[in-house]
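A quick aside before the break. I want you to see a complete sequence-to-structure record at least once, exactly as it would be stored in a machine-readable document. Don't worry about memorizing anything.
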Amino acid sequence: QVQLVESGGGLVQPGGSLRLSCTVSGFTRDVYYIVWFRQAPGREREGVSAISSPDGSTYYVNFAEGRFTISRDNAKNTVYLDMNSLKPEDTAVYYCAADLDSPPQYGSTWLRVLMGEPSRYLEVWGQGTLVTVSS
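That is the input. The structure line, written in tokens, reads:
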């Protein structure tokens, strides 16, 4: 069974930076797509960014574009989310999730599908890591 564990959350001041990690364990060979989501207090879960492998294609939602960077180290089975210029509204629990069965041939366009229908296609979720942006 594939398992995901997020880490790296914490308290950061507005304008600061933070790196989140999503480590994938278990049978990872067929895991080609990882997606970051977040859920702020009193709000619905929303997508943040996604990445595919082995080509490393990425996708960002509007609020993340230009501020957040997603990357993947396949050797370490880890996906990173580097967050810069953080704002108070970025405060949320951040989750990573994996699509366990979609083939790599789906390509980068699949990332948008995963963002739109996460409950249908993302089978495994991590426990989340809390990011608090406050002065």
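Two observations worth writing down. Residues 9 and 131 are 5 Å apart (CA to CA). The mean pLDDT is 94. We'll return to this after the break.
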